[in-house]
Write a structure and sequence with these properties.
Order of helices and strands: HEEEEEEHHEEH
Strand content: 15-25%
Number of strands: 8
Helix content: 40-55%
């Protein structure tokens, strides 16, 4: 009987080789899956107090608050009125700008009313913007005025009491919110 050099015919060698091959294949698979998982990110969205949608690619907490009619946000609750936002999953990926553009395109492509043509929609949206801006202008002028008044039928100014002025301001602010979708 002739012996084969290298001992390839030794008992257990094939099992040992299969075991090493399986281990190497398992390690390569786990590394591939692990890297593929870490390379993939998710995009999350949240809506601020004025209805504006924001996109992020992290699950880190976000806090928001409104001050002087402006919306602020941060990653720490550093303001006394700060509240944590609800992050809603949007899509897989990490391109936040592309997600925002896609959302804006989807919103633009939708017609608000059944049967409304793009021209009618544009006309309606322009009218809505006009009335929103006009309501804001009126509200700001009321806030800046030293005293509010109404003109009676005879054309004479009748100044409002502090209570009436406060009520008029509140009603005007509500109208701004209604017309501007706040």
């Amino acid at each position: 009987m002739t012996a084969v050099k290298g001992g390839a015919n030794r008992p257990g060698d094939n099992a040992s080789m299969d075991s090493r091959l399986f281990k190497n294949l398992l390690i390569a698979t786990l590394l591939t899956v692990g890297f593929a998982h870490t390379a993939s990110a998710d995009i999350w969205k949240w809506t601020d107090a004025h209805g504006k949608i924001h996109f992020v690619n992290t699950l880190k907490p976000i806090y928001t608050w409104v001050e002087d009619g402006k919306v602020f946000f941060a990653d720490t609750p550093g303001h006394e009125d700060a509240v944590s936002v609800e992050l809603v999953w949007h899509s897989t990926g990490d391109d936040v700008e592309a997600a925002a553009e896609e959302e804006q395109r989807k919103a633009h492509d939708k017609w608000a009313y059944v049967g409304e043509t793009p021209e009618e929609r544009l006309e309606r949206e322009n009218a809505e913007k006009y009335y929103c801006n006009r309501a804001k202008e009126i509200y700001e002028s009321y806030k800046q005025a030293p005293r509010l008044y109404k003109t009676n039928e005879a054309g004479v100014r009748e100044y409002l009491s502090d209570e009436e002025a406060a009520q008029t301001l509140a009603e005007t602010e509500a109208r701004v919110a209604e017309l501007c979708d706040y």
